[in-house]
Predict the structure.
Amino acid sequence: MSYVDEVIEAVERENANEPEFIQAVREVLDSIRPVVEANEAAYRRDALLERIVNPEREIKFRVPWIDDNGNVHVNNGYRVQFSSAIGPYKGGLRLHPSVNIGIIKFLGFEQVFKNSLTGLPIGGGKGGSDFDPKGKSDREIMAFCQSFMSELCKYIGAYTDVPAGDIGAGPREIGYMFGQYKKLRGLFEGVLTGKGLSYGGSLTRREATGYGLLYLTDEMLRRNGIDIKGKTVLVSGSGNVAIYAVEKAIELGAKVLTVSDSNGWVYDPEGIDLNALKEIKEVKRQRLTEYKKYRPDSEYHEGKGVWSVKADIALPCATQNELELDDAKILVANGVIAVAEGANMPTTLEATKYLQENGVLFAPGKAANAGGVATSALEMSQNSERLSWSFEKVDTKLKDIMVNLFDNIDDVAKKYGFPGNYVVGANIAGFEKVVDAMNAQGIV
Ligand code: NDP
Ligand code: 2IT
């Protein structure tokens, strides 16, 4: 059996209850086969792949907090410090009831290669909790965040591990966590990114993942001779990534037809009204059912369905495995040109394969959504030099990073004989840098 297959089998055996982690490992290991085959003896001797698929450290802790009625709740807190090969652990914190160790491991594993692709000195990690922020009062959110950080603060720091937001963790949660870290550790340092602008946050960080997604998509289309202007776009989700993907898509002259949340989806044939979306989601923290009040001609549908609308480009920006084989078939039947992942692993392996086999340009999340963490790294730079850069400066750097990233994955895909396969390109390019750093640092 090949070394890759041996390691995949071991990962499946040792992590049998973690389907998302297995899926993420499978995708990466499958596409790096040519590199591994060329170095099989040395990699095997050094147990290189075993070291890549096993996190350096997994931390799990209890998070007790008190609700507004005086009742105590206990949630699970996690931080998986996956790889520090190329820099301090870096990656977000997800607050969602579906969070478990397998979810955090899959996200941490993806983050290692994504962070490598940014070209910036950041390792990979991820954390979070099964706490559900939905419907909680502001005081309850603060109570949870403080308790979470009371334990997490023992393991993180500006030069060791720098968390940020993810699903359910935005500027409000980061603010409460930063305050608690500062109080307990007595350090005002860049220990978290996605901070508010008044206390060390970076301009453009809020917009970065969505903007970066569109910069990369635009570049991918351009290189394939297609202009994004006038194209129709499907966006799923209506959180941080989705909102700024909608904003940049509109700015680039495209028309966004849909957004969604976990209850349903909106179809607006005239194009999503960005101001309405921001007011509903960012200001009022309401559900998408409210959208019709702003746009009476739009439609609201319960359940899944975004991918059934005919459009040129699909941008999944909600969560993992939200675009399945049946969805891919409908997209292809409707003539979709490109799919770019704003979320982490939103497309199943079968759906990805189907899209690629049917000539759809496909940008995987670890490349397409890397603008968020790249801008987090720029926030770390600004914190280190105790300066704040202008919006234009950060945005220009973000755009350069995404264009260079596309160049890199495009070149690597060609070099290994898979032209246009950006999944292979991203996985190999991300992997090669991590391996280089690991080899230089010995067996640690
Ligand atoms: P938010 O919490 O801001 O928004 C998440 C959106 O996805 C909401 O509309 C939410 O709906 C929807 N959603 C979440 N879980 C589910 C689910 N199980 N089924 C259907 N819809 C769901 O998160 P972000 O926008 O920050 O993150 C979105 C995705 O992008 C995630 O995969 C995240 O890991 C990834 N990402 C985020 C980055 C960032 O900088 N924030 C960077 C790179 C990737 P509802 O409100 O109903 O829960
Ligand atoms: O998945 C991701 O890349 C993020 N949630 C952002 C991580 C970060 O450290 O900014």
